[in-house]
Write the structure tokens for this entry.
Amino acid sequence: MRKIKVMTVFGTRPEGIKMGPVVKALEKDDRFSSVVVSTGQHAEMLQQVLAVFQITPDYDLKIMRPGQTLTEITIETMTKLEPIIQKEQPDIVLVHGDTSSATHQLWLPFIIGLLLVMSKLVCEHGINIRLIQKR
């Protein structure tokens, strides 16, 4: 039986705190293959969370630069995330948060036609998964 490949993308400390248990659950479940992507939006603070959950991202976008604009963050996120999505070909992309990098993470899977789950509602309220688009 083919495993369902789930790509989890996050980049801030609060996102990591909420998505850490999701990543660990995916790793333990034989039905899933987990790919973790860090945007690096809050790199130093996120490292603390990753250490607690013992998670090593498969990819780190390292998007932040001193003095960059929102436009530059957008370009950096989309430019670095697209080849990863193309290479990994996930069945599902989990995105959490309302940060600028989370917003940009929503567009690529949607454009490519992947199943996209906005997990902010799930992690913060425990209800209402939104399925944006299926392959």
In short: The chain has five helices and six strands.
